[in-house]
Amino acid sequence: MTKPDTLHPYGGEICMEIVSERQSRIRYLQCSGCARTYPVNAINTFASCEACGKSPLISIYDLPQGPPELTIDTSERSMWRYFELLPVLHRENIVTLGEGWTPMLRLDRTANTLGVKSLLLKDESFNPTGSFKARGLSMAISKALELGIRDCIVPTAGNAGGAMAAYCARAGMRATVVMPKHTPAAFKTECRYFGATVIEVEGLISDCARVVGEMNTDGRYFDLSTMKEPYRLEGKKTMGYEIVEQLGWRFPDVILYPTGGGTGLIGMWKAFNEMIEMGWVSGRLPRLVAVQTDNCKPVLETFLYGEAITRAKPTLANGLAVPAPFAQKLIQRSLRDTFGTVVTVSEEAIVDGVKNLASAEGLFVAPEGGALLPALQKLLDDSSVRRDEEILLLNTGSGYKYLENLPE
C-alpha cells in the first residue's frame, strides 16, 4: 500500500514504465476516496482500504500514445478488442460469451417525430443474457478466475444476476444470486438454468445487499455488488470506447443513460477521459444525463440537495430501483464534470417509451431503455438539449424478460 505524491486525474501517481505489446497495461488499483494504491495480482475490494474502506477502487493504466490501431485488436469483435486497456493480465483467463461490440442504430423516424437532427441508440440487448450487465460480469468473473476465486455472490435487481450466473457457469465457478421476490420470473429461471443458487428477498436491491452482507460475514464469497469490487466498472467502460470508435473517433453531444448503480455512467466517463489522455479523441466530453424513475430517484435528489431524501419504491424498471448507490460520489462527479444533469420519469411514461420505440423503430427495449424517450422529451421541452445536437440513447437490455410485468 502506497500514498503517491503525483496524482492521476482519478487520484494516484502516473507510472511511465512501458508495458510490452498486447499485454494489459494496468498498473494498480486506487481508492477513489483517499488515493491509496493496491496491487492487481491480489484480491482487493473497497474494504481493502484501511484508510476509508468506503470508496470504490479504480483501475489505473499506463496509457499509450499513438493511433488507436496500435492498441486495439481490430480482429476481435467483442469488448476484448480493448484487452490492453482492461485489467485481466493473461488472455487465458478471459471468460467470454461474445459480449460487447453492440450495434449503434439510427432512430430516424423517432428523430423526425421529436424534431431532432440526429438520434442514435446503442443497443446493449444484443449482449449475452440480453443486457449490458454481460460486459461487467465477463470482466469480473475473468478477473476472479485469474485470482483463484471459486465462489461468487451478487445482490441484483435481475440482469446482473443472470449475467453472473452465466459467466460463472462458463468458468466452472459457483454462483449465488440474491434478488427481490417481485423480480420477473424470467430472471430467476435463467439463473437456475445456469446452475446458480437463487435466494429471494422481500424488498429492493438494498435489502438484498443486506442479506448478502449477512451471508458473507466469513468472507466465503467474492461479493460482486455494484462498484464494491473494481472490475465490473472496467467491463462497462468498454461502452464508452465503442461509442467513440463507432462514431469515427468523435464524441456525441449528449448521452442519456438509465441510472441505477451508475457503473456504466462512471465507466463511460472514465473511458472518455482515458481516450483523451491517449490522444484518440478531442473536444468537449458528451454531456451525461442520468435517467431515473419517479419511484426511485436518489441520483436526482443528491444532484439537487446533496442527499437522497425520499423513500424508494419498486419500479417496472427493476434496474433503476437502487435506493442508495454505493458509488454516488463518482456518479455525481461524472455528471458535473461533463456538465450533465438528471431527469426522472413516471411509470406510465416508461411504458409509453417502450411502446413507442417498439412501434416506431422495431426495438423491444427493457423498461430502463423505455425511460429514455420521455426523459429526452423533457430535456427538449426545457431546452437542456438542443434539437440540432447529436443525441445518443443507451438501451441497457431486452424487453423480453419483462413480458409478465408489461401491460398489453
How would you describe this structure to a colleague?
This protein has 408 residues and is an alpha/beta fold. Among the domains are: 104-127 and 233-402, 3-Layer(aba) Sandwich (Rossmann fold), CATH 3.40.50; 133-223, Rossmann fold (3-Layer(aba) Sandwich), CATH 3.40.50. It contains 13 helices and 13 strands. The chain has a 6-stranded mixed β-sheet, with helices on both faces. Helix 4 (185-193) links the parallel strand 7 (174-180) and strand 8 (197-201). Helix 3 packs parallel to helix 4 (185-193). Residues 1-20 have low confidence and may be disordered.
Summarize the structure.
This protein is α/β, with parallel strands linked by helices. It is 32% helix and 16% strand. Among the domains are: 104-127 and 233-402, Rossmann fold; 133-223, Rossmann fold (3-Layer(aba) Sandwich).
Share of residues in helices: 25-40%
| Terminal Cα span | 56 Å
- How many strands, which pairing sense, and closed or not: the largest β-sheet? 6 strands, mixed
Number of helices: 13
Summing up helix and strand content along with how strands pair, one would put the structural category as alpha/beta
H and E order: EEEEHEHEHEHEHEHHEHEHHEHHHE
Indicate the topology:
Blueprint: E1 26-31, E2 37-38, E3 57-61, E4 104-106, H1 108-114, E5 118-123, H2 133-146, E6 151-155, H3 159-171, E7 174-180, H4 185-193, E8 197-201, H5 205-215, E9 222-223, H6 232-236, H7 238-246, E10 254-258, H8 263-278, E11 287-293, H9 298-305, H10 328-337, E12 341-345, H11 347-361, H12 367-370, H13 372-381, E13 390-395
Parallel strand pairs: 5-13, 6-7, 6-9, 7-8, 10-11, 10-13, 11-12
Antiparallel strand pairs: 1-2, 1-3, 4-5
